Amino acid sequence: MLRRLGFSFSLLSATLLSHVAFAEDPRALQVIVSKQNQSLVVYEGERVVATSKVSTGKAGHTTPGGIFSILAKEKYHESNIYSNAPMPWMQRLTWSGIALHEGNVPNYPASHGCIRMPKTFANTLYRMTQAGAHVIVTDAPVVPQRIEDVALFVPHKPLPTGPLLPDTELRTSAIRAGNKPVEVAMNVAPDNPVIIHDGAPTDPMVESGDTTQMVEGDRNTAPLRILITRRGDRETLMDAQLLLEQLGFDTGGSDGYAGPLTRDAIAGFKRWKNLSARGPMVSAEFIDALYASAGQPKPPAGQIMVRQDFKPLFEAAVGIKNPEIALGTHLISADRVDRDAETAEWHAVTLPNQIPDAMLKRLRISVANEPSVTDSAKAALDRIEMPSEIRDRIEVAMTDGTSITINDQGLGPDTGNGTDFITVTRTQMDSAPVEEVSEKPSAGTSRSITRYKSIGLY
User: Fold this and answer.
1) pLDDT by residue (tens digit) across 166-222?
2) What is the set of domains in the chain, with CATH numbers?
3) Secondary structure class of 310 (helix, strand, coil)
4) Which among 298, 322, 349, 439 would be 20 to 30 A from 271, CA to CA?
5) CA 138 to chain CA centroid, nearest Å
């Protein structure tokens, strides 16, 4: 009997290992965790590569749902929050304390927020994945679906000469705003994600005289991470600072931070235009008057941000048709990218996401749930109006594993230097966030950081 049991366990282990061997490209793998089923499924496109039971966060320590990426991997880690608890085969999802790792899996939620896996599978998954692989956490399970749409990016061969982004208006990697580092888009990124470059140039683009040939071997083959979302307060203020500077006001830089110089500049502009000083500092009346005075059209409602190797590349404005309707929350990933044939396969996952009423009001969304729109990645894509030059720059750089996240709320609370775009979703089952618990600061973002109560590494 014991010999038969031993043979069965060996056969199961061999099956898992064969799944690893048949994975064509680890960059295209996606890990989907269902808290409702306490299960984990690894997909390559629509194909199931491996499955396992898991144990997610128990009551009071709920594992947050959303779209994450593997940020770092350690064969053995000890929690610095929970009495040096061992965490073999650890794969980190956030710098604030969420990870996949080996642990006790009792067929019900039992962790302090992490996703525990059985020993053999934790080892297998560790060897199967690469840093940057997407991990999607939901209540009910979701399945990637093949998607075809003319709005999807199509791989093209690299441009023959010149830099990848020759004429995009880019910003420096980080700017000091008082004692707070502020992450902004950049072309030249730091090697260390937590280093703040005070002396970063204001225009990091390659000089126009540089005609270095771009050959295939010189290209960065890491997948692009693309976020399409709504322009938020940060982008609005950054553009306002630029326009105020053009009109002769001193804002101290276009960092999206309302420091003393920026506040004085806004107040001065309001006095000049006889605008009310009451109400929000950056009001709709102020923005309308500012763009009219600068002779500039107001920017579109959307924003595209692009990262690679956990570092920002660039960002730009994009249009959103019917902006009063929510876009929904979607992850669309590419595999089988063939640059010579100019083809790629795309698969989409749509996640339930309940946006708070206050955020809906701030984003001017009056229709939060529109059937076939918020529940369809294709419908969301068809509403995005993207400049052709931005599309071209993405299509010459995309590789297997390139992904597009579409959401309404913008950067997730854990998005920072050294991460991909993290989207945290909310459902009625989620507990309210109440306090910050952090192992390592998420450097490079000025947005308020919200953590879930007592979530930690274990």
Assistant:
1) 444 444 333 333 333 333 333 333 333 332 322 223 332 223 333 333 344 456 789
2) 15-143 (2.40.440.10), 147-232+300-425 (no CATH), 233-294 (no CATH)
3) coil
4) 298
5) 16
